[in-house]
Structure formats: C-alpha cells, structure tokens
Amino acid sequence: MTGFTSPDCKNMIDFQKAMASMPSSFKQQFDAISQETLDRVTDASEGVVTVWEVNDDLDGLFQIMEVLKKKKNKTKKSKRKGPGMVIISREVTGRDAYSRIVESMKYWMNEQGDAHIDGAATAFGSIVVVRGVNYHSSTPVDSATLKQATTRIDIVLGKVLKMTAKSHHSSSSSSSRPKLTWHHGPILSLLLHWINHTSSTHRAALTAITLAAPLTFTSGAKPSPNALANSPQDFSLLAKYASKLSIPVLFLDPTTELVHYPFPSTYMYYLGFYITLFLPREVTTPHYYKALDKLVTFAFKLRAGCDGEHGNAVVKKVKAHLDGTRAKRWAKTCIDPASYNVAASASAAIAEREVFGACTLADCPWDLLSEYSDASPLQYFTRLPISPSS
Prior knowledge:
- It contains 14 helices and 10 strands.
- By secondary structure, the chain is an alpha/beta fold.
C-alpha cells in the first residue's frame, strides 16, 4: 500500500484544516489511499476472513448481530456459505464473555455449534467463536496468557482460512489466497502478540486493521478510558508492523462518529420492544436486572435529595418499598448506603446526565453491564458504518 506523509494534527480541528488546505497535487494521492483503505476494511467478498475482537456487552453483541445479518442476506442471494468469521471474546472480570457470545450465536444461528479446543472455541460452520483474554485483571496480561490465546486463535484461523479458500476456489477461477481483515478492540497487547508470533502465512494474509476506541480525538489525541493499558511503545510497535506489512490501521472513535450517549436505545429505535427478540433471555436478563437496580437507586437518590436524608436512612426506605422475594435477584446498588451520600443525592436532583440516563432506562430498561464513559461510549458501535456490515 502506498504511503503518505502529512502534517501532524493535534486535534480534529487541525485535521479538518489540513484537509481543507491540502495542495491539489497531493489530493488525488490522498483520495486514492483513503478509498483503498475503505475498500479493504469493508471488503465482504468470499475470499476475505474477518476477525472481530468484541465484548459481551450490548454494543458488542448488536455489532456482531448486524454483521451476521448482512452476511446471511448476502449468502441467501448467492446460495453460498460466504466468507468466514472469527469472533474473539474480550473477557471481563466477573462474567464469562465467551459463554455469553456463544449463547447469542446459538440463538442467532439456530444451532448448537461444535465445541473445540477443550471448550475454548465453538464453531458454527465457517464462523467460530474463540476465547480471548481478560484485559481488566488487577495485573497486566502476562506473556503466557497471550501465548495461549494466540495459539487458540491460530488454530481457529487455520481452519477458517482453509474453509474459505476451498469455498472461494470452487466458485471462482481465481487462485488468489484468502485475505484477513482484523477488527480489534481498544487494547493492543493481544493483537501485537499475535502479529509477532503467528505464522508467516497468517501474517501475510492480513490486509487491514481497525481499532475500536483506543484513542479519543475531541481535545487532542488521548488514550480513551477503555485503553489506559496501552503504552506509547505499543502504538510505535503497531506502526512498525503496519509499515512492514504495508497495511492500513484505522482508528475509530465514538464521539468523532457522533456517538455521544452510552445507551443503545438512543440509536436503535424501539429497542425496548425488540431487544428480547434480538438476544436470548439468559443474555438479556443481567442487563434488565442492572437497569432495575439503577432506576430504583435514582428514584431514592432523588427522594433523599428532596428530604435531606442519606446513607442507611435511605436504604431503610428502599427496603420498605421493595418486594424482597423478587428484588433479591437484582438489588445491589439500591441497598448500598454508599449510593446515598449527600453529594450523590444532590446530583441526582439537579444533574442533567443523571436525569437523562434515568429517563432513557425507564424507556428501555436494559443497561450496559460495564461502566461507561462519556468520553468513549458504545465503542463497538464505531464499526457499524465502516465494516463489511456497512
């Protein structure tokens, strides 16, 4: 891929100014590089395998659901299996992301799938879910864990690339090898380890990389709250690999794409009516319980702010109004005295963000399981306009 050198831009305003003032002699080259990059990351042809590192929260699950929907629509028309996919679960402390993604896949695909690698991978034809790593542990991901994950991914990739190559060659006179597009999450360690330690065949198949929310660009290029584990050396190493492999790396940022709110229902109309059709009950239930807990907490924060109460006095009122038999399954934050300190109760009464969040959850009571940040919300929604599903 042809390189292009441009002025350093500290923020999006500088970038927009640089684009507007670009000399005409460079514009054609820049446009060509931009188009080639877009063609690579959105390539949905039969010879392309897409890799998705994704979480098990609502934004990640809906993004994968959308990709599968587009894949199904395309293969229906062509009556072929279509390109392969590898879905890497981004594990989170306190829940099993891999199992939640597999349960969702069973629901979407209407099949049980085949377990492999001692249960660390589940295949649905040419689409395979494989267990990734937990970036949110109290300690950084160690090299042994990265090595194990890379081995699992390579085993799965080898199978999917072979299936894709066989399907591609049977339907085309082309002898070209399958290509690999990698859509990674915000933390780079697993991707960098894989590039450095995978086989030369897999590395040579890589044509493009996208990164979901490793940086924010609203006030200069800064690490997003989701990617504080990345170091400057990680980005330098990624740039080195990309240059050596001659592939583009596309940085995706929610706020730059005008995704400002941490609620999927803001962008998916009538989600409250349809979410239980989109996802299986065992997957949606924890989101529902968290929303109930948060709504009750907000209501009693508001009352505490009006009554001038806090701490255990508020918890006593909460317990008096709740049905203990039902609420014991989800009541956590709402019965924690720390939720009702003086500052929290006052903010609930006046803060626009608190009120907006409560109104949104009341309309669609399914909340994200992870704590979200205003600086980088719904990170996996960034892929929707720039991926094979677009």
